Amino acid sequence: MEKTPTEVWNVAELIEVQPQAVVSRTLINQKSGTVTLFAFDGGQGLSEHTAPYDALVQLLEGEMDIHIAGQPYRLHGGQMLLMPAGQPHALKANQPAKMLLIMIRAAPGDSQ
User: Fold this and answer.
1) Is residue 7 part of a domain?
2) 57 lies in which domain range?
3) Alpha carbon distance 63, 49 (integer Å)
4) Is 12 domain-assigned?
5) Which of 68, 69, 77, 104 is the most buried (most CB within 10 A)?
């Protein structure tokens, strides 16, 4: 996303669900972290993977199952969940869903 003057965004309106797809849009990409918007059609998801950094998921709309290190979580619009660094995780939308992913690129134990 291009740098723009300060403005108010309705985040969920910045991306649209596409049939049988996962769509992403990077809002911020900095050395210190990223903010990425995702839209999932129902039944779509991301297969199990790990990330070297903590990630905060905020589900904006819909319903999604997230598994972290084998533990299942069900999120509904308005809820958020921390996915810890190094833990395998997978996501699947039970219905069309939009989520905001905030990844903090700081290694655990780094001083502030």
Assistant:
1) no
2) 18-104
3) 20
4) no
5) 68
Q: Structurally, how many domains does the chain consist of?
A: 1
Please name the residues in contact with 92: beta carbons below 8 A apart, sequence gap of 6 or more: 40, 43, 44, 45, 46, 64, 65
Q: Could you tell me the two tokens for 13?
A: 């309106």
CA-to-CA distance for 11 and 15, rounded, in angstroms?
8
pTM of the model: 0.87
DSSP state of 47: E
- pLDDT (tens place) for every residue of the chain, 112 residues total: 555 668 888 999 999 999 999 999 999 998 889 999 999 999 999 999 999 999 999 999 999 999 999 999 999 999 999 999 999 999 999 999 999 999 988 655 555 4
CATH of the domain at 36: 2.60.120.10
CB 32 within 8 Å of CB 104? yes
